[in-house]
């Protein structure tokens, strides 16, 4: 990857982070590439299905935490794109029960991130 080839002309990027114990992330100039690259890095081919979170944010102000999740700098809140179920052949908005265990669907995940942003702004 060339230096900053994941950054749009406005200084923003898409960050995709795998959910759960998979532990991968990727940045790109479009959400589908970021999502696919994060899933591929996590080994979606071996796992079959994987959940991937995606946000749009100022490059350098948003990151994956050491235990997963998405973190941002104060004053640089991301725009949640969604929670996606990724297989080797598809990327779809997550529905309840898509992947093992209990998890939010795509719309609920977006609401959770927006609530987290509102809480961080109110603090």
Task: Summarize the structure in short.
The chain is of the alpha+beta class and about 120 residues long. It contains three helices and seven strands, in the order ββααβββββα.
Structural write-up:
The chain has 123 residues and is an alpha+beta fold. The chain has one domain (12-122). Helices cover 27% and strands 30% of the residues. It has helices at 31-42, 44-47, 106-122; strands spanning 12-18, 25-28, 50-58, 62-64, 70-72, 79-86, 91-93. It has a five-stranded antiparallel β-sheet, sandwiched between helices. Strands 4-5 form a two-stranded antiparallel sheet. The longest helix is centred in the C-terminal third of the chain and has 17 residues, at 106-122. It starts with 11 loop residues before the first strand and ends with a helix. The mean pLDDT is 89.
Can you lay out the helices and strands and say which pair or pack?
Blueprint: E1 12-18, E2 25-28, H1 31-42, H2 44-47, E3 50-58, E4 62-64, E5 70-72, E6 79-86, E7 91-93, H3 106-122
Antiparallel strand pairs: 1-2, 1-3, 3-6, 4-5, 6-7
Shape label: globular
Radius of gyration: 14 Å
pLDDT under 50 segments (min length 5)? none
Give the percentage of residues in beta strands: 25-35%
Topology order in helix (H) and strand (E) letters = EEHHEEEEEH
What do the pLDDT scores average to? Answer: 89
Number of strands: 7
Number of domains: 1
Helix run count: 3
End-to-end C-alpha gap: 37 Å
Percent of residues in helices: 25-40%
Largest sheet: 5 strands, antiparallel
Structural class: alpha+beta
Widest beta sheet: strand line-up: 2-1-3-6-7
